[in-house]
Each structure stands twice: as C-alpha cells, then as structure tokens.
Amino acid sequence: MKKLLLMTALGATFMACNNNKQAQETLAESVSPSPENFQYTVDKFADIEILRYRVPDFETLSLKQKELVYYLNQAALEGRDIFYDQNNKYNLAIRRTLEGIYENYAGDKSTEDWKNFETYLKQVWMANGIHHHYSEDKIIPKFSAEYFTTLANSVDPARLPVQDGAAVAEFLKKILPVMFDPKVMPKRLNQASGQDLVKTSAVNFYDGVTQEEVEDFYNKMKNPDDNTPLSYGLNSKVVLKNGTIIEEVYKVGGLYSTAISRIVGWLEKAAAVAENAQQKKVIETLIAFYRTGDLKTFDDYSIEWVKDTDSQVDFINGFIETYTDPLGMKAAWEAMTNFKNVEASKRTHIISDNAQWFEDNSPVDSRFKKEEVKGVSAKVITAAILGGDSYPSTPIGINLPNSNWIRRDYGSKSVTIENITEAYNRASLGNGFAEEFMWSAEEVERAKEYSEKTDNLHTDLHECLGHASGKLLPGVDGDALKAYASTVEEARADLFALYYLADAKMVELGLLPDDKAYKAEYYKYMMNGAMTQLTRIQPGKNIEEAHMRNRALIANWALEKGKADNVVEFKQRDGKTYIVVNDYVKLRDLFGQLLAEIQRIKSTGDFAGAEKLVETYGVKVNPALHKEVLARYEALHLSPYRGFVNPVYTLVKNDKGEVTDVKISYDENFVSQNLRYSRQYSVLPIWN
Ligand code: ZN
Q1: How far is CA 350 from CA 99, 368, 497, 508, 615, in A?
Q2: What is the pLDDT of residues 183-195, one digit of tens each?
C-alpha cells in the first residue's frame, strides 16, 4: 500500500535544454554520464513514453558492492514472468505468441496492420500483460483477429508457445477471445461497488471462487485479538479444488517454483558478498521465506530488513504491494535494487530526526497519533534496476514494509528515488504543459523556481512521515476499509505532506528556501488532482487507480469546502478552464481538516465514511471538463504515461575467472530489452 507514483507524467519543469547528443557517446564509461549528455527518451507508442534513467555514482561503489548489486539485479529480473501470470492467466501465452511472431514473421512489415501489431506488443510489455497498467482496462488491439491468425499461421509452430505443432488452431481458439472480445475479462481490477469484485476482476489471484467465499476463507484465519497478525493471503492464489477452497502458495516446490528457485540462486550469491552481517541475515531470511512460503518467516524478514540501515546497497524482492488485488490482500511480485545517495540523504535525515515533532503537531485527533514514532528511517536512493511490478512503470518513492504491526513496533524504511525523478523532470523540459494549464506566468515562474525541490520534498514527507504516521485504535481490523483502503492510505500520506510543506518548520529546518516555495506544490497538486490527471482517463470512464482517486478526492473536496471563502476555484479564460488558488493559507487549513478526517476513518476502520468520501470526490469525472482537458492535452502531443528501460550490467572477469569489475551501459532500447528478458528470464510454463 505504500508507494508513491509520479503525480503527473509530465513533471513541470521548464528550462530550455537540448538533448541531441547520442546516448552511444556515454556508453560503458567509467564515469557516469552527465544529465546534459544523456538521452532520456527512448521510445514512444500509444499513450506511453519510454525513458532511460542514469545510475550516477555506480562507479564509486566498491567492487564487492558492485558485485552485490549485480546479483540482486539478476534476482530482480528472474521474477518478471511471475508478475505477468499474476496479472492474468493468459498473459504468458499471449506475450510469448506475440514475441514468437515478432521475431519470426517474414511477411510484409510495412503495413498499418504490422505497425499496430508492434504497438500492441509494446503495450503488453509496458503493462506486463493485456490490461493497461494504470486504467486496468483490457487493451484492444488495433488489428483484427483474422490478421493475427494469419501471422500466427505463417510462423513455424515451434516458435510459438504451443507444445504440439498440430495444436496451433486449438491454442488460438483459447487466446483469441481473450485478446479481441471486449466483453471477455474487460478489467484486470474491478472496484465497482456492489459487484462481486473477485469474479469480475481478471487478475489471477483467484480461480473458481466468489468474493464472499474468499472473505469467509480468510475471516476464519483471523483472530481479532491478535496484535501481530500475519499478512494472510499475501503469497498465494485461492482456488477451488475438488469442492474445497485451498491456497496455492508461491514458493520453491509450489506455485511459480521454477522462477522462485532461480531468484533464490541469485540471492545465495548475493548473500556471499553482503556488506555486513545484518544484510546477510536479511537475504538469508528472504531465501528461507521463498523456500517455505511461511508468512511468519516473511514477517521475520521484514523486521530484519527494517533494522538494516547501515548498508549502502539495499533491495526489494518479493510479494509486496496489494494494489491489484480487489480485496487488497494478495501481493504482486516486485523488485528493485538501489544504493544510498549519501549527499542527498542529509535532507531526509533531518526529516526523520524530527519525526516525533511532526507527529505531535499534526492536526489529527490525539487518540489517533503515535505516542512514539519508531524507527522512521528515510534516505534518498539511486535505483540500479527495476523489476516485476516496478518495471517498466515505476514509483518515485517507496515506504515499506506494509504490515501495520511491524510498522508500529519496528518502524519502516522510506525512500525517495531521485534518479527516477530526475529522468521524469529532464524529459519534460520545455514541453509546454505548464504554459497550457497554469493560470498565469506567476504560477509557471514559481514552478520553474521551486518545483524540483518541492517535488522531492513532497515525496520525502509522503513516504517518511505520511505513511509512517498515525495508529489504528485497538481492535480495528487493518483490512476494514477493503477496496477503499489504498485510496485512503495514499490520501493520508499526501495530506500529511501537503499540510507540512506550508509549515514554518520547513524553512526553519532549511528544507525549503522561503515561505513561498510550498505554493508551487499546492498549485500543481490542485491543478493535477482536479484537472490535468484526467489526461490519463479515457472518455466516459471513471477514476480507478488509488493514487489518482486520492488526488481527485483531495482536490475536489478542497474546491467544494473552500467555496464559501473562495479559497480555490475554477476560472474560465478564452474558453479554457484553469485552477486559481486565491488563498493559500486557508487552503492549508482545508488540507489539515481533511487529514484529520481521513486519519479518523483509517484509525476507526470506518468503511462507510471511506466509501462516502471516495465515491463522492475521488471517482466521478466531469465530462465537459474531461473533454476540454483531453483536447488541450492532445494538442501538445505528449504521452500521459511513462515507463523505463533498465541499464545493462556486465560482469568483467580476469583470465582466472575472478570478477574484477561490473560495467554499466545504457545502450538497450525498449524492444531489445524486453526480447532479451524474455529469452533470459522466462522459465515458467504458460499455464500455471
Ligand atoms: Zn504512498
């Protein structure tokens, strides 16, 4: 539940900058390429732009640390197919068919049909499956089932994921409706209230069971008096077998065994070059979890991981976030290797050193505050590789672990991923977005001056303080808010950040240069939440994704509650709609009031309160405004979503076979990277 995605796909940075030099100039040098010499944009298709990110200072790591990063990176790539299969049970079959055709088709590749086929394959790579990574809707190909059948039949059946060559027709019969019929599995995650969310979601966490059956199944395991509950259901699929409901557990010897075994193999190599004893223990406990699937071991691992604050290299690898489960229990496989940016982390250390002050002074009811904020450790990191749920679309901040009681008793680790934010901002230079959507030159200038600072600080505060703040009242079930839990949790973290960005404490601590800087973030937040994030929504659709719902909720609530005092409003000029903030001080008050209410809902497990807030302010879209925003956005020719390609790491060995260095290069494009990943890291059967 704890990751921050970029607020807008477009950052809002504006300096003129030309980036015409070729990426090739920067390849495999011993010094990191500078931002000015780096080619950030790699590819554009459909509604997606693919970027590259730099890994500055990788060369300053010790040889042992580089080797550690290398093995953790390998472990991060081995789970790719797990995430595909979790997203939908047809994903691996369809992806491998598309790739088989793409690499072997010998016919005419100059046609519109072929271009649409290529775009669809890229969309599947971007989404880790056939449903859009953000909107959850099935991606409908812009070519026909007949064309696809012709392509499939023209390729040697041995190149397709069909065991028996004669069975191609049979195989196609299975996957064609899933690809082409809009009525079959239309949504990966359905959150429409009143429907059976398990039956109507295409995600592959359940088979043959109803929502009620799943809820009963897990309610029987839960003990309301348990103060340290396991994360029930986190690492399994629930299926009906011979009339009985059972869990198929992800582990060595269980579901996804071949991929998990390979992850374990790389983790063993990583453990051997760990930086210190604590880190070694972390890796070994994770290995034990993958071997047993035991959720108690997962909690042990999470606790050891929180305690490891000395290592420079760190990683995420496992079943982590529950956004794509309609019931918020089952976790998607995710990985990221990173290392600490020591200089930039001084900023986050100031924040975590003052964590108790922030908790004590928040506008939240004292019953819901933590008496003692424990172990909030925050750092700025450099991502070295993205995998699973974090690739190609990736967060800019993360706060883990997710278990409420581990956070309560042991604290959490919070990170701001600055090299990813850098790529977003650099790729947005001078794209015209701010000039189009901001009310006046004043807002544009303010954003230019402050927003790189305030963006990063918002992420720090959201992750380090926001998610770590507050507590549940005794006896309140952590799953009480069900489908609204993620939205409420994200709103809580955002509001905490927004409230404190405007506090005099920020300037006092030297985190912001003056008392005007926060206005840049306030304006951008309101503009995005109420308006410009609609560029990511198809006409006629509601808002689905938790972070988007949270931003709409906050912005629309503030617009309505601020009406009487004219705090913030929509204004028209030349037939265009803009957000105008008239009173920033009162806007801060409103954020504080909503923070108090959201925390009350979370702390008391008030499902009805959550439902009312989210459904009233966070889901619905004003169709006229939506249409206008889409048209204005279209005219700018920008992509509303962004993904990344990873750098390539190579072990350098001497003639005795000893590792002497790890080289990093940035020369792979989106297509070659995904095809390579499918060759090197694809060991699961198509049906799991
Ligand atoms: Zn978050």
Answers
A1: 49, 24, 15, 11, 37
A2: 999 999 998 888 9
